Amino acid sequence: MKAMKKALKTAAFITAFALMGGLPLSMNAGSFSAAPMTAYAADDDYTYGSDSNFNYRKFSDHIEISSAKSTKVSSVEIPSSIEGLPVTSIGMYAFQLSEMSTLTLPDTVTELGFYTFTDCKNLKSVTLPANLEKIGIHAFENCTSLSEVNFPDHQVKTMDYTFDNTPWLDAKRKEDPLVIVNNAVIDGRTCKGDVTVPSNVTYVASGAFAKNKDLTSVVFPVGVTEITDNVFWYCDNLKSAELKGAETMGFGVFAACNKLTDLKISGNLKSIDGYTFTDNTASATITFYGSESKWNSVQKPSNDQFLQRARLIFDESHVEPQDVVGDINKDGAFNVSDLVLLQKWLLAVPDTQLADWKAGDLCEDDILDVYDLVSMRKALIAKN
C-alpha cells in the first residue's frame, strides 16, 4: 500500500508540474517510473516475462502488461491470462504511440496505468472492461480518432486528463460542459460561472476543473468525500467553493486559486494535504461545519499560510438534508420520476443509473426488485 500511495502522490506532482508547462504531457517510456497503481497481495516482488506480443510483470497473483513488442500492429488484443494468472492491469506507457486502430481488453483488467494509450492516433473506439476500477492520468490523451468510449455499468475512477484531446471528450462537452459518466465527473474544464455538481455524483476526477479560468464558484454534494489531487489547480477566478461531504483534501486542490475568499468544508473532514493550498495568496473565510475542537483534530499542515490567513467560522448547526425514502435519483424528493427510474433500471435500459438504490428498498430486504416497484407505486398513490 505504501508503494501505491507513493506512486499516486508522485503522479499528482508530475501532473501538476506538467500543467504549469514544466513537463511535456507525453513523455518517452523510461523517463519516469512508479509502482503499479493497484496493490494486490502483500507481494512487491515480480519477475519479468514476455511472449510473442507483450512484455509483462509477473506478480504472485496477477500479471501486468508492461509494454508491447511492436507499436506497428493495427489490432491489439490483451489476453485474459498469462502463465495461468489473470491479466489485471496495463502498465504505464505500455502502448504509447501505438499505431493500433482496434483494441480489445479482457474483463479481468481492473486498472489502466498512466499514459497507457497516449498518442494512439488511429484508435477509434474502446470498450472498457466490465471490472475496470481506475484509469490513470493521460491514459487516452491525444487519441485524436477516439470518438467512442463504452463504459461498464458502474463507476470508473478517472484521473487528470484521461481523455484529453479526443473527439469523444469534445462531443461529451458539447452535450454538457460538466461531463459525468456513472455518477463520476470526468471533466469540467469548459464549465462557466457557478457550478453545482448534481447530488448523485460521488466522485470527481483529479484535475477535473484544472486551469478553468471561467469557473467562479462550485458546490460539491455530500457524496463526494474525496477531494482529489489538482481538482481546481490554477482556477484563478474561483471565488467560492462548498465541499459538503469532504473527508480528505488532496495535493494541489486549490493551488494558486488566488481569488478564493469563501470556502465551506464538511464537518467530517479528516485531513488536508500539505500542498492543498500551494501558491495560494488569497485571504479567505473558511466555514467549517463542525466544532472548533473537531477542526483542531483535522490532520493538516501547521505552517500553511493560506490556513493561517483565513478567518475561521464554526457552524455546528449546519445539517445536510436527510435521505428521503424512495428518492433513488437523489434529488431531494420522492416522486414519479423515481418510479420511472426504477422501472427503467429493472428493465435493464442501457445507461440507467440509481444514485441511491437503498432509498428504493421499500421492502427492506436488501434486494431491489419488482416488489419494491409495486411498493413505490402504492406509496406515491397514498401520497397524492
| Major β-sheet annotation | 7 strands, mixed
Tally of helical segments: 6
Low-pLDDT residue intervals, each spanning 5 or more residues: 1-8, 21-42
Alpha-carbon distance between the termini? 53 Å
Series of H and E elements: HEEEEEEEEEEEHEEEEEEEEEEEHHEHH
Number of domains: 3
CATH topology of the largest domain: Leucine-rich repeat, LRR (right-handed beta-alpha superhelix)
Percentage beta strand:
15-25%
Structural class by helix and strand composition:
alpha/beta
Radius of gyration: 22 Å
Overall pLDDT level: 88
Q: Portion of residues in helices? A: 10-25%
CATH class of the largest domain: Alpha Beta
Described by the principal axes of the CA atoms, the overall outline is globular
Number of strands: 23
Question: Can you describe this structure?
Answer:
The protein has 384 residues and is of the alpha/beta class. The protein folds into 3 domains: 1-175, Alpha-Beta Horseshoe (Leucine-rich repeat, LRR (right-handed beta-alpha superhelix)); 179-320, Ribonuclease Inhibitor (Leucine-rich repeat, LRR (right-handed beta-alpha superhelix), Alpha-Beta Horseshoe); 336-383, no CATH class. It is built from 6 helices and 23 strands. It has helices at residues 2-19, 167-175, 292-297, 305-309, 336-346, 370-383; strands spanning 47-50, 54-58, 63-68, 75-77, 81-82, 85-90, 102-104, 111-112, 125-127, 134-135, 148-150, 179-181, 184-187, 193-196, 203-204, 215-220, 226-227, 240-243, 248-249, 262-265, 271-272, 285-288, 311-314. Strands 1, 2, 3, 5, 6, 8 and 10 form a 7-stranded mixed sheet that branches. A 6-stranded parallel sheet has the order 14-16-18-20-22-23. It has a 3-stranded mixed sheet with strand order 12-13-15. α5 (336-346) runs antiparallel to α6. The longest helix is centred in the first third of the chain and has 18 residues, at 2-19. The protein is globular.
